[in-house]
Amino acid sequence: MAYWADLSYYKDTFKGVDTGEDFAVLLDRAQDVLNILTLYRYDSMTDPPVALRKALCYEIEHLHLLGGNEAVHGITGADEASESLGSYSVTYNRQTQVFIHGIPVSALAYDILQAAGYLYCGMGVRQP
Question: Across residues 52-69, what is the average pLDDT?
Answer without folding.
Answer: 92
